[in-house]
Amino acid sequence: MNLPAAKIRMGFVGGGEGAFIAQAHRQAAGLDGRFELVCGAFSRNPQNTQDTGAALGLPASRCYSDWQHMLATERTLPEAQRMQLVVIVTPNHLHAPVASQALSAGFHVFSEKPAALNLAELLALKDVVLRSNRLYGLAHTYLGYPMVWQAREMVRSGVIGALRKVIVEYPQGWLSADVAGQGNKQAEWRDNPELSGLGGCIGDIGTHAFSLAEFVADQPIQQLCAMLGVHIAGRQLDDDASMLFKMADGASGVLIASQVCAGEENPLKIRVYGDKGGLEWCQEEPASLIHRALDQPMRVLRSGVGQPWLCAAATQRMRLPAGHPEGYLEAMANLYGDLANAIRGHAQGQTSGHDAPGVPGIEVGLRGMAFIETVIANHRGDAKWTELVCTP
Fold first, then answer.
1. The domain spanning residue 120 has which CATH number?
2. Listed residue (104, 116, 107) closest to 87, CA to CA
3. What range(s) does the GFO/IDH/MocA-like oxidoreductase domain occupy (predicted)?
4. How far apart are the first and last CA of the chain?
5. Which of 92, 222, 238, 292 has an alpha carbon 20 to 30 Å from 76's alpha carbon atom?
6. Could you tell me the residue range of the domain that residue 271 belongs to?
7. Residue 25: inside a domain, yes or no?
8. pTM recorded for the entire structure
């Protein structure tokens, strides 16, 4: 008789009461029943930590006053009881320090992006990741959508021919007013370079657009020409970004990321064009992938289990038949599912190293951080084009 596999025990750093992204992580991790929350250091406020833990059904003894205490205590617990995975959902300045110490203490890590505050800090973290023999993943949730994988496969297999043009845009409207001045804590820390890093909008959502472009096109961006803007008086970091870019195999591109597009919600969108046709996908309509052929009518591919025209990578990330919408939580749950497979394989000695197949890892983090610093350098300098390289 085959017994069900034990759930993977996870602990959270950050994500106290009122934190949207942490709630999304907990819901996504629970979707397929493969993870169990066993502990957390949810807030710098001890009462918030205890209240959050109580609301989640945790014993007070596993709700820690700080993340250092959590790591130190958890590693002393019996192997069958201690956490196995640290989930980092804090402001950006803690991502690398927590990840580095968690990996060194023998825990796997799944972190919100960006992986660090700057490229030098991230290169140091990479050294820790490579030495740790533990898994490291980044929550680039949009790379968990099935139809994003379908688009990538269609580009790879030559359905649209040789790639010529990539257009990716991510307009939001939530920072159209001075919401930080009105007490919005999420806006406050995002506009503080000590907590957020050098990039504002470009770090927060521009990196999502960048990673989506490289993933679907299946090639790196090599050069870019950028312009950043600040549209609210007193704001320290950019709230608007526009740029041109060149890709490795000759395709040209446009990337727009903005958080001052009044009225917009979250319409991350990508269009890619080759010499035989084009593809279009939008996060607000994630079940649809539009395919335009050069000499045929437009067709719309729809997600759904059992659709024979979809690739295996897309199908394995679907849970429901066509016509039953899957969205953001399911996309994040796909990352958790791939991470669960890798953690279980690691425990059984079947996998080693730091990569969980299907989950963005440290190299994606390096690309994203290099992107942020290259955009800022180009905007501030006089050069028309700046090379994007992953070194300080």
1. 3.40.50.720
2. 107
3. 150-280
4. 54
5. 92
6. 146-322
7. yes
8. 0.95
